[in-house]
Design a protein that fits this description.
The structure holds two protein chains of two kinds. Helices cover 23% and strands 31% of the residues of chain A. Chain A has one helix and four strands; from the N terminus they run ββββα. In chain A, the strands form two sheets. A two-stranded antiparallel sheet of chain A has the order 1-2. A two-stranded antiparallel ribbon of chain A has the order 3-4. Chain B has 33 helices and 20 strands. Chain B starts with a helix and ends with a strand. The chains are: A alpha+beta, B alpha/beta. The complex binds iron/sulfur cluster (SF4) (2 copies) and zinc ion (ZN). One iron/sulfur cluster binds next to helix 13 and helix 15 of chain B.
Amino acid sequence: MKNDNVRPDDLKWRCCQCQSDLVVGQVAVTYMNNRFTTDLPHCPVCKTVMITEAVAMGKMAEVEQILEDK
Amino acid sequence: MDQNELRQWENRCIQEEPPPCTAACPLHVDARAFVGQVNQGHWADALKILHRTLPLPGILGRICDAPCRLACNRKEVGEAIRIGDLERACVQRTDGRRRVMPLPKKDIAVAVVGSGLSSLTVAWDLARKGYVVTIIEPTENIGAALIKRHQPLLSAEIISVEADLLAHLGVGFVTLTEIGTADACRRCLNSHAAVYVGLDAVSGMPWEIGSREDPNRNRFAGATGRDGLFAAGDHPSAVWQAAQGRWSATSMDRWLQKVSMTAGREKEGPFETRLFTRLQGISHLPALSMADEADGFSDAEATEEAARCLQCQCLECVKVCAFLEHFGSYPKKYAREIYNNESLVLGERKANRMINSCSLCGLCEAVCPHDFAMQDLCLASRQSMVDRGRMPPSAHDFALQDMAFSQSERFAMARHAPGTTASRHLFFPGCQLCASSPGQVRLAYDHLRNTLSGGVALMLGCCGAPAHWAGRQESFSAELARWKGTWAELGHPRPILACASCLRMFKDHLPEADVVSLWEVLEEIGIRESGIILPKAPLAVHDPCTTRGEPALQNAVRRLLTHLGVEAEELVLGREHTECCGFGGLMQNANPALAREVADRRGRRSDSDYLAYCAMCRDNLAAVGKRAVHLLDLLFPDPGNSDPAGRPRPGWSRRQENRTRLKEELCRDLWGEQPATLAGYRKITLRVSPEVETILESRRILKEDVRKVIAHAESGGPRFRHPDTGQFLAVFRSSHVTFWVAYSPVADGFSVHNAYAHRMEVLGP
Ligand code: SF4
Ligand code: SF4
Ligand SMILES: [Zn+2]
């Protein structure tokens, strides 16, 4: 997953708890005992990561499928 | 599955067995492929197929007496394909010149006596294996006897083209050399490692070779009883002469290499194929005659004659199963793929999706001439995947969650009929009928209670079929045990089932429950006749795939229809050959697109409205736009719905709500129990547009999930806000899925704009 997953509009969202703007940076994800990092938007304060519909339904679904058949 | 089991499975599927023509040909020419190429007008490719098996095609292709015709399936529906004439047409269209690759030379000299078809074949086969071959011909001309016998098909030029090829392979020719004395024979034997005598052209007398009946000659092909001396070819048929030459060459090679003369030679010569080819429905076609028999087939005639070929093959199962067709192969190949999938240590398990897409409906077994049961193979493989921790989590999760819901206090319950403490009968409607038609379940229960004596208990819940289909044996056993426990507490009343899948599960896995279908019971006790609105046109009966092998049940349904006065239409694939609706085996979970295709295909078998007697069948047909009623729609009509065949399939959320509401209403109205008040997130009111409903449905996100996400966010959980739209985007991970919901608060609750989910877990920056 590369950072072309992050579109400019995604960074308009703000974290409600911390009232802060999102930043893009390395985030760890895991599935079926596989772990990797990728650039995703998240709140720099509380560290909550935002997954957009495009990422969830696109790249993530694709990688899930590949790992399930490993 | 181990190697042995794999072989047994593979052996069951006879799709790869040769067609009858090939099996009947002494040389096993792939006549089906050959004729197929001729039909396309591809003469060069057709010739290549002949080259693969025919020795000396320029000769044999012209004179073969085609015993294959006696076995050709076409003769059952017309006349046998004129394969011999097509071969002739094929070889006549080339000059016969081609490149042959000689093998590295062996330093072993063999003699071939005579230049009939059998001798030339021996020379051809042994020269290609690298032996130093010398043909010894008594007359002046190679092939003299052949030409004489097959005038005008053969000529000296034709023979010389093939003889040139032999020469190119290093075969030497000695002509005008009669070996007529015992002494000459001995000298020939002494100077060669092996000698072949072609009895189709020369006499065996000086060699003291016995007649065909001589037991010395029948130990193996070409045997004479003398070491190093081989002979054959004394058969009247040309192709048999060539075949005997070929088998003798094999014997000579084996003898020279000192290996077994007999091992692995069972398929030499004609045999009866196990291949099955359906001939029903194929129209009669006589053989094509040629404008000029002496010239042979013209191009156009050959194409037309070849077009009559049935291209024999089985594929009986693939023809009727969209799943088998979808993955592009047939069970023999699938068995191998499944085996590979299981034995794979590292790498991509390519067959996962295939294994999980089978509806386990058993139609393949019902149509297969050898009872190949793809469903057994797929189910066993799923069980093994689960046991080895290799089952993709997404394959069945949703259905298993739904089962867990059915087994929770939100639906499951068991009670004796109100005011009673014992029951002779037990109504178990199953989970999906309650999910789809809660009103009719209630009416049916009322009717059973009012009509049957001895008390009718009610049990709501799931039979565990999803766990079974998902290959989760442990969980399935636990569900059955639990069911059995409740049933025992009720005092073992006789279960009356409304769902064919439940019926299948109990009959196969809990036979002591001695279940009976609602339809058989209703036939016996009669139905309420009031208020029934009969359909105006006949209904096509769709038997659930789980009723395959239950003719009594299928008949009961038809008798009920007759009793009602409904005209029933039989579908092409009905009763024991019925098709799945796409729900079976959790196909719908693992492969929704294929399940839709299956339902759609089923729906197109007839233009009439369908009558289903399984809630899932009805709903899946309805989901692809097929008009379908459930038998209960006729027996216990809903006064509020004048067109039950047009009722859309209730969505996943609705199916859960229906179950919970049914339980609450029954408890309140029949047993006087107050339902528990809704707590926590369940109280949340959602506003969902039809567009978003569709999104939720296709992504299998329940409103229940949406409520959890919103409740979590509203009580201080993480969420994001978009400054332009004011929408919130909230997240909540429940069990193995992360749900995201975009929403905004409205006066009486929340408006849902979008929702999506993923399984991957985000650990954080
Ligand atoms: S019906 Fe299917 S499984 Fe059976 S032999 Fe034919 S191709 Fe093979
Ligand atoms: S879906 Fe039915 S017919 Fe097709 S392979 Fe599976 S069990 Fe056989
Ligand atoms: Zn924050």
